[in-house]
Amino acid sequence: MVKWLGFVVLGWCGIATAAQNLPAAPAPTGAPTVQSLPPEPDRQQCDLNALMVCVKHVAEDEKGIVMSPLRAPAEDLWWIVPFGVATGVSIHYDTDAIRDLGVNPSREDKFNKLSDYAGLYGPFAAAGGGYIAARVKHDDYLKETAVLSAEAMADAGILDEAMKYTLDREYPMANNAKGGFWPGGPKSWPNNPSMPSEHTMNVWAFAHVVAGQYDGIATKSLVYGVATTVSVSRVLARQHFPSDVLVGSTFGWLIGGYVLHHRSLERGKLLDLSTVETPLGSGLQVRVNLSRGQ
C-alpha cells in the first residue's frame, strides 16, 4: 500500500500546482493587441430558466477540454511529464497494490458507500442545495458557484465515460486484478471499464470550482480533503486501481479549473499586468479586478 500511495500523492502534488495558460482572443485590425489577458467569460449565464445556455456551455467546454492538449504551451511539460511518469509507474504496480490489499468485504463495503456519498451524491446535493439557497437569499455569487460546479461535473461525467470506453481497462475485481487494457479485444468490448475513476473525477471537478470561488483556507481544506478521501476510498473499496484514481483526480481538477476560468465572472487575479501593442508602440496594461472573490 505504501508504494501506490506514494505514486498517488506524487500525481496530486503535480496537479495542485498546474498552471493553466489560455491564448487571448484575436483583436480587430488596428486595435491594441493584448498578449496575456484571458478571454472574457460568456455573459449568458446557465440557469434553470435558460437550460439551452447550460447545454451550450457544457458542449463548448467539452470541446475546449478535448482540444486543449493541441494548444498546450511548451512550459506545460513541467507538469505533464511528471504526471505521465507517475501514471505509468502507478499502472506498473497496480496489480501488486490491489493484491496486497487483499479481499475484505466489510472494508470494501464501507469505503464503497463512503465514496458514493462523498464523491457522487454529496457534490450533486451540494450544488442543488446551494442553488436553492442562493435563490432564497438572492445571492448571485452562490448561485454562480452552484451552477459552475454542476457544469464542471457534467463535463467530467461526459469525459469519464468517453475515456472509460476508449481505454476499456478491466476493473480490479476481474481476472485476478491484472488490469489489462482491451483484454478480450473488440469482441468482448466493453469489459466493465475501470479507468478513470468517475467518483474522483466528479469530486475533484466540484472541489476545484468551489475552492476557486470561495478561496478561504477552511473551504479549500474541506473540499480538497473530501476529494482526497474519496480518491483513497475508491482503491480501498477495490473498485479502482491507484492509476485509475490518479488519472480521474487529475482530469477532474483540470476540468474544474477550465470551467472556473472560462465561466466565472469573478475569476482571475486581483492585478493582471500584460504587454500591449498600440499604434504608438509597445506598452504595459494593468487590469484591476475589483469584483474578485465577491
Describe the structure.
- By secondary structure, the protein is mainly α.
- It has one domain.
- It contains 8 helices and 3 strands.
- It has a 3-stranded antiparallel beta sheet with strand order 1-2-3, with no helix packed on it.
- A hairpin with a 2-residue loop joins strand 2 and strand 3.
- The longest helix has 33 residues, at 105-137.
- The radius of gyration is 21 Å and the shape is globular.
- The termini are far apart.
Number of strands: 3
Number of domains: 1
Strand content: 5-15%
Average pLDDT over all residues? 79
How does the overall form come out from the CA principal axes? globular
Keywords, separated by commas or semicolons:
294 residues, disordered C terminus, three-stranded antiparallel β-sheet, 6% strand, mainly alpha, disordered N terminus
Summary, kept brief:
The protein is mainly alpha-helical and 294 residues long. 61% of the residues lie in helices and 6% in strands. It has helices at 2-16, 51-71, 77-101, 105-137, 140-167, 198-213, 217-236, 242-263; strands at 33-34, 271-278, 281-288.
Write the layout of secondary structure elements.
Blueprint: H1 2-16, E1 33-34, H2 51-71, H3 77-101, H4 105-137, H5 140-167, H6 198-213, H7 217-236, H8 242-263, E2 271-278, E3 281-288
Antiparallel strand pairs: 1-2, 2-3
Helix pairs in contact: 1-3, 1-8, 2-5, 3-8, 4-5, 4-6, 4-7, 5-6, 5-8, 6-7, 6-8, 7-8
